[in-house]
Amino acid sequence: MNIASNNQLEGLNSKELAKARRKEGRLFFNLSLPSLITILIVVFIPVFWLSSLSFFDRAGDFSWENYDRIFQSQLYIKTFIVTLKISFITLFFCILLGYPLCYWLSQLPNRLASILMIFVLLPFWTSILVRTYAWLVILQRNGIINDTLISIGWIDEPLQLAHNLTGSIIGMVHILLPFFILPLFASMRSIDNNFIRAAISLGSTPRGAFWQVFFKMSLPGFFAGTVLVFVLALGTYVTPALLGGGKIQMLAQRIDSTIMLYSNWGAASALGVVLLILAFAVIWIFNRAFGIDKLFMR
Amino acid sequence: MAAVEMVGKRKYNNLWLDFAGVCILFFLALPTFIVIPMSFSGASYLEFPPESWSFRWYESYFGSSEWMRSTRTSLLVAFLTTIIATPLGSLAAYGLTFTSARVRNVSQLIVVVPILVPVILIAIGVFHLYAKLGLNYTITGIVIAHTSLAVPFVIITVLAGLKNYDFNQELAARSLGASRPRALLTITLPQVKFSIQTGALLAFITSLDEVVVSMFVSGGENATITRRMFNSLRDQVDPTIAAISSCLIIISVSALVTVLIFNRNQSKDQI
What we know:
The structure holds two protein chains of two kinds. By secondary structure, chain A is an all-alpha fold. Chain A is built from 13 helices and no strands. In chain A, helix 5 crosses helix 7 and helix 12 runs antiparallel to helix 13. The radius of gyration of chain A is 26 Å and the shape is flat. The two termini of chain A are 51 Å apart. Chain B has one domain: MetI-like fold (Orthogonal Bundle). Chain B contains 14 helices and no strands. In chain B, helix 5 packs antiparallel against helix 11. Chain B is globular. Chains A and B meet through helix 1, helix 3, helix 4, helix 5 and helix 7 of A and helix 1, helix 2, helix 5, helix 6 and helix 7 of B.
């Protein structure tokens, strides 16, 4: 009897406690409202408004004509292809350079790895514009690379490194690589090397242990870096504008010029919507698989 | 020492990895710094290594009233953005640690959107919102736009700091009679101080280095330095930009060094 009533009491109490906790949660949520409202007003509302323009024709009636137009025009289709191509190539090189670097850093003593991470953080904290400018200076016709290669006699004519696809990709890999390294390194650092030793002592080859244990455990960071690099690459504006020499038009620049030069708001907006859908499809898949907080939280 | 390599027979694998690692680190860190020696070049075009040295590009930067005006605008905007975004973001992070997982997840989605949405869409959208409100080319307008871009970085940094903080300390203070705000200010705040300072520096750098939104909503009297740099880079490679870039690099490096010193102090405290 006594025990039963105790249980009953506890049950009542836990209900009240849960209610109080929910109430407290709501109260504290108010603290984040100023930030969230600022973001909603300055980011969400303008972007939604811009996107909505794509669903109306010039007379202001609902129509799909902007989408018909962008998917029939050679110019816009070429822009999509170039954007996807550059984004995938950039992602490929970020993985190619980033994964071995992170693996190497994760196997070094903690202290040394932290010191070497400064080399990754430095570009992360430096202006994209400054870094793009540096590459412009390095890659131009009479830049350091061409001068060096000519003076040691490897080439006679300067290579065309800037103002084209090559320059844009070099610049973008440099700018996006830290976004790949930071989540991946955090992920690798939390892997206990004893797992790999255990796998080997249980009969796995070192190579097998690496792929079946280490690589698999690094996947959350690997995918977080992949999503960040790919999504940011899709929307890049500054780097191809400066290092592409006007020849490389990615989606962001095409949207800009469609509005600024041709005042074609409907088509630009439709391009923007496609860009948003691409970006959010990737993010949505990541959110379902790992949770959005894994994208930035370390 | 790599565990895999330790067991494996072929030790030279490790040397190759060392070599590749060092090369990739150089690729990441060096290119930017090439700008600094070049900014002291005496020639009227960019060369490396410079054959003669001079301060002419710094004179051309500091002597230009237009460059100086946009430098002042950028620094003012970055300062105002920092002092607005830091308390807003810190409060939001504090609030979000107490909400239910569901609400927190949705809020985090909202928070990362400004980082992930292609910034050109934000820029064009904000430009037209501001056209209706008369905020284009005003300091207020640029600061509001930059605040919404900087707040996510503050929230993410402070949330990470709060993750390592034991909230029972705040409960202890309250059970001993401190009011909730007092417990927050005297117990919690000093312990996540470093995260907040890191967030503030990130907010400052985010605003100072922001290009695309500034290109649309800043201009005229209130053009930011990045807007002016971008426009000048599209036309030609003016060596004055090398001098300005060097100054921006120094600011970034100082900010990063400050953060690293915070982190070192913090990890010492924890031990």
